[in-house]
Write a structure and sequence with these properties.
alpha+beta; five-stranded antiparallel β-sheet; single chain; 149 residues; 21% strand
C-alpha cells in the first residue's frame, strides 16, 4: 500500500509540473513545452520554453501563483522522494511535455559548481561577538544604559 501511495504522490508531482507548463503555453500552438530547474535547498531556479515548429519561445503566459506553488512543491517532493529512495540528491531536473500527454523527465545529480550548501548556522551571539571584535558597539538601551562598552 505504501508503494502505491508513493507512486500516486510521484504522479501528482509530475501532474503539478505539467499544469505549470500548460499554464505557460496558454492558447499558443506547441509541439513541446518544458522547464529546466536547478533545485537549491530552499529555492528553485527555472527556465521554461515552448517549441512550435522551428520557433523556440521563452516568453509564455503568466503562471497563476497557486499553479506555480504546486509545481514547486512537486519538485521538492521529487527531490525528497529520490533522496529517500536512492540516497542521492537531485540538484536539477528537466521536464518536457508533449501534446499527446506523454512527458520526459531527466534528473541532474550534479551540484551546481558555484553553490555552497553548508548548513552552518551562525547564532546571534556569534554575530554580536564578531561585530564587537570589529569595533562595533551596541547602542545604549534601557536594560544596558552604557551599551556594550
Amino acid at each position: 500500500m505504501t508503494t502505491q501511495l508513493e507512486n500516486q504522490d510521484v504522479l501528482n508531482a509530475y501532474q503539478a509540473i505539467a499544469q505549470k507548463l500548460l499554464a505557460f503555453v496558454g492558447d499558443k500552438p506547441w509541439d513541446e513545452v518544458g522547464t529546466k530547474c536547478i533545485v537549491y535547498s530552499q529555492m528553485i531556479e527555472s527556465e521554461t520554453w515552448r517549441k512550435s515548429g522551428d520557433l523556440l519561445d521563452y516568453f509564455g503566459q503568466e503562471i497563476p501563483m497557486d499553479v506555480s506553488r504546486s509545481a514547486r512543491e512537486g519538485i521538492y517532493y521529487l527531490r525528497k522522494h529520490l533522496m529517500d529512495l536512492t540516497g542521492d540528491r537531485i540538484w536539477g531536473l528537466t521536464f518536457t511535455l508533449y501534446p499527446t500527454g506523454k512527458f520526459n523527465i531527466e534528473y541532474d545529480y550534479n551540484k551546481p559548481e558555484d553553490y555552497d550548501d553548508s548548513d552552518e548556522t551562525i547564532t546571534g551571539e556569534e554575530i554580536n561577538q564578531s561585530l564587537f571584535d570589529l569595533g562595533f558597539r551596541a547602542a545604549p538601551t534601557d536594560e544596558d544604559p552604557k551599551g556594550n562598552e
